[in-house]
Design brief:
The complex is a heterodimer of chains A (about 140) and B (about 475). Chain A is of the alpha+beta class and about 140 residues long. Chain A has helices at about 20-35, 60-75; strands spanning about 5-10, 15-20, 45-55, 80-90, 90-100, 115, 120-125, 125-135. In chain A, strands 1, 2, 6, 7 and 8 form a 5-stranded antiparallel beta sheet that branches. Chain B has one domain (about 1-480): tRNA-splicing ligase RtcB. Classes of the chains: A alpha+beta (about 140), B alpha+beta (about 475). The interface of A and B includes residues 13, 63, 110, 112 and 116 of A.
Chain lengths: ~140, ~475
């Protein structure tokens, strides 16, 4: 099963995310976002952070989760490769994220922000899907 | 949605208020038939309609000829809301707060640097941090950042980056009053700490250009421009700091919608009354990012001057390198406008649109008071950019606003596919344009054919009489992030 798929609008890029459950949606979206930043496989899970994000719905939590990861990436220049979810419900997610400082590794693209535009999380039969647009 | 447009004249189209009961004002799109048919997506027009539903919106939801699909407000969107009774929307400004552009003129001519392009591109690439995948040369403490928020480009000048004269050639003198650093989050401060003095990636760039065409000799002379004169253009914004402030306040505004019972068709347009704690806080924080962006471009310009002087083994005095103007194209500002014959104080949101004040406007520096505000329109890295000036019609038609650039015509995926098996860098070099970028993918995504021909946009804005053409500049050296 595909974990994520990118799509383009004229100016920006977005991502469709697939998962068996909501945890997979959150993990696969994180993987997809970092793949958009760099498709390099050189990064390793050397540094570890524990993060906690709160929201008022799955959509808000999803937006804040990706925004939080982007914050760690952009402020501390860490590319994350490993995501373990410790706790997840529509109001809170707790996770351990592991990654490595970028230094001179190959970065292909800068994501300015995660947008709320047409952001969706849905459940179809036994599958979950999400859609998100990034500002590049 | 396109079929609902009614032609007012060759460059002005009405999206009638009657098409949707939620619209408080009509939409007006300034565009030529050709651009409308070839480049305006239905989604972008839906975004014009969505913006027309915002509480307190005045006159119309406007779009410039470079309109394209964004998030919230379309790129090229301009809306004005009443300062007392209206709302402010971070989605009406965008994530890259005070993304903007500055243009410098030198004493050099094309012949002086024809054989020095390689030296120049290397010198600039070495000296100008792109900030992509790494950080800049500066590292600020949070308290130093707060000084930048309060003072803007003036902070940079006080620290020795450029001169006071530069501030006179900057919109709002490079500093908005009322920036309150306490309204900026810890996260935003963390992101901003190492990104002052960085260019960033995507469509941000630094170019050395030459004047290819003069359209108005009288105006060009005032700008010290003549054919083959060398110019320099810098395009960047408030970097991660602004992106984080916008993200933070998008969340604040999401909650404000519920608090103030505002119903919107798109959450990305989330807003709050200007006259509310949320609205006031956003405006204060937005001003911090705007001031940071002006400091950023001021510092980058200083390093550009240094790099060019070093590469050409000449002094700044010899080379000129004088700032013509710097302006924002993603911002919200408190401005006075005449609406239906009455003076009103408005919050003018420009998202991918440039302020274009007419001759005589009191906010213009004295040297441009008689000719109107310079409006810098970057194109793509292979063709050309334009210098225009604002007109009286801009004031009556678009709250003193103009277009901001070419706008993409190919998505990034399509651009990469189109560039497969080609070296865009070599193709450009054969045309005499030297490009350096952090990554090859950027060059492919940003290749000239990924953008519309900016002259089509300029033709439409001039046709609508919103701006007047002064000169066209062609790139010869390009730095991308």
């Amino acid at each position: 099963m595909k974990e994520y798929k990118f799509f383009s609008t004229t100016a920006d890029m977005g991502m469709e995310v697939f998962g068996k459950d909501i945890s997979e949606i959150f993990i696969n979206s994180a993987k997809g976002m970092f793949n958009l930043i760099s498709s390099s496989k050189e990064f390793e899970p050397k540094e570890e952070y524990k993060i906690k994000v709160k929201g008022e719905s799955w959509e808000e939590l999803f937006f804040k989760w990706l925004s939080e990861l982007l914050f760690y990436y952009d402020a501390y220049k860490i590319y994350f490769v490993d995501f373990q979810i410790l706790k997840i419900n529509p109001f809170e997610i707790e996770a351990v994220i592991k990654g490595e400082k970028i230094k001179d590794k190959k970065i292909e693209r800068e994501i300015k922000a995660v947008t709320y535009h047409n952001l969706e999380i849905s459940r179809k039969n036994d599958m979950w899907e999400a859609k998100v647009l990034f500002d590049l | 949605m396109k079929e609902k447009l009614r032609k007012i004249n060759d460059y002005k189209w009405l999206l009638p208020k009657e098409i949707d009961s939620r619209m408080r004002v009509p939409g007006i799109i300034f565009v030529s038939k050709e651009l409308l048919d070839r480049t305006v997506e239905d989604e972008a027009l839906i975004q014009v309609r969505n913006a027309a539903t915002l509480p307190g919106i005045v006159k119309a939801s406007l779009a410039m000829p470079d309109i394209h699909y964004g998030y919230g407000l379309p790129i090229g969107g301009v809306i004005a809301t009443d300062w007392e009774t209206g709302i402010v929307s971070p989605g009406g400004v965008g994530f890259d707060i005070n993304c903007g552009v500055r243009l410098l003129v030198t004493n050099l001519y094309l012949k002086d640097i024809m054989d020095k392009k390689k030296i120049l591109v290397d010198a600039l690439y070495q000296h100008i941090p792109t900030g992509v995948g790494s950080t800049g040369k500066l590292r600020l403490t949070h308290s130093q950042e707060k000084e930048v928020f309060a003072k803007g480009a003036k902070w940079a000048v006080e620290k020795g980056y450029g001169t006071k004269k530069d501030l006179e050639a900057t919109e709002s003198y490079g500093s908005l009053e009322g920036a309150n650093p306490e309204k900026v989050s810890y996260k935003a401060l963390e992101r901003g700490a190492q990104q002052l003095g960085t260019l960033g990636s995507g469509n941000h760039f630094l170019e050395i250009q030459y004047v290819e065409e003069i359209y108005d000799y009288r105006l060009a002379k005032i700008f010290n421009l003549e054919k083959n004169k060398i110019t320099v253009m810098i395009h960047t914004g408030s970097r991660g700091l602004g992106h984080q402030i916008a993200t933070d306040y998008l969340e604040v505004m999401g909650r404000a919608l519920r608090k103030y019972n505002i119903v919107l068709p798109d959450k990305q347009l989330a807003c709050a009354p200007i006259n509310s704690p949320e609205g006031r806080d956003y405006i204060s924080a937005m001003k911090c990012a705007a001031n940071y962006a002006w400091a950023n471009r001021q510092i980058l310009m200083h390093w550009t001057r240094e790099a060019i002087c070093r590469a050409l083994k000449a002094s700044e005095r010899d080379l000129g390198l004088e700032l013509i103007y710097d302006h924002a194209h993603n911002i919200v500002k408190k401005e006075e406008h005449i609406v239906d014959g009455k003076k009103r104080i408005l919050a003018v949101h420009r998202k991918g649109a440039t302020r274009a004040f007419p001759p005589g406007h009191p906010e213009l520096p004295s040297k441009y008071r008689s000719i109107g505000q310079p409006v810098i329109i970057p194109g793509d890295m292979g063709r050309y950019s334009y210098l225009l000036v604002g007109t009286e019609e801009a004031m009556t038609e678009t709250f003193g606003s103009s277009c901001h650039g070419a706008g993409r015509v190919l998505s990034r995926h399509k651009a990469i596919n189109r560039a497969r098996g080609r070296s865009i860098t070599q193709e450009l070099e054969r045309e005499g344009i030297f490009v350096r970028a952090a990554d090859r993918k950027t060059v492919k995504e940003e290749m000239p054919e990924a953008y519309k021909d900016v002259s089509m946009v300029v033709e439409a804005i001039v046709g609508a009489k919103i701006s007047k053409k002064v000169a066209r500049m062609k790139p010869i050296v390009v730095i991308k992030g």
